[in-house]
Amino acid sequence: MKELTLVLKLTLLEKKDVLIAIFFGFLAGIAGVALMGSSGYLISKAALTSQMTTLVVMAAVLKLFGFASALSRYGERLYSHRATFTMLSHLRVSFFERLSPLAPRIFSKYRSGDLLSRIVGDVESLQNFLLRVFYPPVVLGIVFLSVVFFTSFFSLGIAIVIFIGMLLTVVVVPALFSSRKRRMDGQVRAQRGNLAIESTEFLYGFRDLKIHQQLNAKEQQLKSDAAQYNEGQRQEGLEENLAQSMNAFVALLVSFFVLGVGAYFVAAGELDGLYLAMLVMVSIAAFENVAPMAAFPTHFEESRKAAVRLEEIVAEPDLPQGSEPMPSGPLDIRLDKVSFQYPNENSLALDRISLHLLPGTKTAIVGPSGSGKSTLMQVLLSVFPLSQGQLSIGGIPVEALKQEEIWQQMNIVLQENHFFYGTIRSNLLVANPLATDEQMIDVLAKVQLDILPLSMTVEEKGQNLSGGQKQRLAIARAMLKGKSLWLMDEPVSSVDSLTGHAIYQQMFQQHKDDLFVIISHDLTGLEKMDQIIVMEKGCIVESGSYDELMEKKAYFYQLKEIENSVFT
Question: What residues form the membrane-spanning segments (predicted)?
């Protein structure tokens, strides 16, 4: 039950609605019991009296109880569902607040389909916590205790039988089936997550599967996963039906015991026969309310596992964040013996990197694939915690700064840039919501995208744009943001050389006082860089200006010679 502690706390935030729902649920349950009990009493009384006044009054009481039951049931549904929807709102907000600081590094651990299944499916599953897990035992307990208290005035033996029946149907049978459900290991939820993963892969990779003629194989795998999920749901349904049948059988058995014990007491003269039918009908009506407990094991385990799966995500250790504001004015970046190791990896991705990047300078980071360039970019963005060493911006350690404020001061262009469904205008306004149309048209002209109107539709993930257009639109977005720190990872790899050089020239001329850090595989045009960092196997093997590195005739010189030999 400890897994559901947070959900319980969020539910009790709406304690007023919860208490009102419990109150109306009790009234509905006890009114139903009173309706059946009055019916039994009326039948017995009608057989023993000819006074019409008594019978008319009892008939009126029956109608009153029926009306009270219906009205109370409506109030119960109204307040219990309102509390449920409010709880779900609190849960989503709480979950998102704990999840957002973990992005984007969390995407390296969880696949997108699995995340979607948890964020949507598991959160939705918890809507049953109040209605099917927390609420029914509480209401049933109060109703049954009231019934036991009432019947004890007529027969203590019958009250004991009803109390034992309450323990069996409300506690013992649900506990038994909850234990069975737990032993089944909750494979249905895992199967649903796997189906979501494979469906997402199928959707994203449809074109490539079609090209490589693997579509049929993937479809068969998807059908197999769907069949497993359906079979798991079928088994869950059978288990729930078995629980419902067992609960109904126990309830019926208890009612027979009440009848038998009552008949014995009547024969022994310990109970007035006038009340026997009433007590039997009270028992039947009370045990009619135990139907929701048949589904209790399923919903309890479903809620518990959903809470566990959600907690697995947000339980990731968050990066330490301080409260100091970002310093104003030109900012420098310093790395002092920084090392970084990916989780579950044996080797260091970055090994004792020391750098000092000054305002108004342009630094290029080059090296072969897998040398650690993109990892260094992620470290500069403060996405990953350092294994050792110190990273500071503007003379302040990043641990003392808020991650959002660090990103707010950076113009970032990554290898993969996301574009939202909308227009060119809406995608540019992501960087600067206050930008005017004139400013947006100006930055589009600087990256040679002025042929695209601001009203042009951008499809999902920018799939109607070419690779070069996506990169130039990302650079335009960075220009529109207008901050002094530029971090760019292969920003023009899909753009032709002439256009790429023209874009660089625009940026360098108009932002002379800014700090540029550019990762590039292309070694041409590096003569304009103030500093070139050459990386290999997570280490800096060389650094200096273009002329200095060429004069050394070492690692960078060899890379340049290889490039020249390939393209000449």
Answer: 20-43, 55-75, 129-150, 156-177, 248-267
